[in-house]
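Our preliminary data section would be incomplete without showing what the modeling component actually yields. Below, a chain of 261 amino acids is followed by its predicted structure, encoded as tokens that our downstream tools consume directly.
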Amino acid sequence: MNITTCIMSGVIVAVMGIAAISVAETPRGSALEDTSLYPTTRHAQTTDAETTEGEPVARPAREGPGPVGILLLLLLLIGATLFYFLKIQRPSLPDFPELTGRDSSSDHASSSRSLDRQRLSIDSITSADKSAFQQLLTDVYRAWSKGDLQELRQFVTPDMLNYFSAALADHTSQHIRNHVEDVVLLRAEITEAWTEQGARSATAKFRWSARTYDVSLTKQPGDPGYVVKGSETQSTESTEVWTFTQSSEHQWLLSGILQAR
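Predicted structure:
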């Protein structure tokens, strides 16, 4: 449910509430009787009880909650509507046309609050580290294209493995599989490096090309409609920010992917 639907729902509730307040504030009988046209008649009909000792006549209290109560009810209805659309309805998994995984910026935000996190110089990332990053780019996409979680387990952190597992399950429920093949790294740039709890981490911005396409799991290669999206022959370029973390065995693992603009 998008934000436009939420706003429209709130507007509808607001209009209904305003209409209810307008009805509640309309004096009874104002449209049927104008007392200014019959001053003599109204005066002649005054009973002795109304004029005795000059006391004012007690009139019945207006029924209903009144404008203030209706306004409070209106605010509660609007609040309940927004809460339903924004909190109760769980968003679906994001699409994975190019393996857009966890937003590593959220990992950075939480880790930046740790007193144990220490920033490192970008120069501390060696040529061997960069080669490992480049190899992971190829290995992860190869395992992803095959839908092989056991192979992916060798290259990613447990959090990323859970995320990929959920994404693959979502694709399977849609009877599709995403393929990212012939990955060629065009440019790589180390943007950040740090240590936390004794483990090294680094972020690299990759620009790469590959043949990216979705296929139907209910059809055979060559059948009409087998390729659902993308192209089996045309390569496209993408830019992503990958975050890597070194394991206790000093092996680099993918811990986050952020689609770059």
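The chain has two domains: 3-88, 104-259. The beta strands are 118-119, 176-196, 199-216, 227-230, 236-246, 252-259. Preliminary results of this kind motivate Aim 1 of the renewal.
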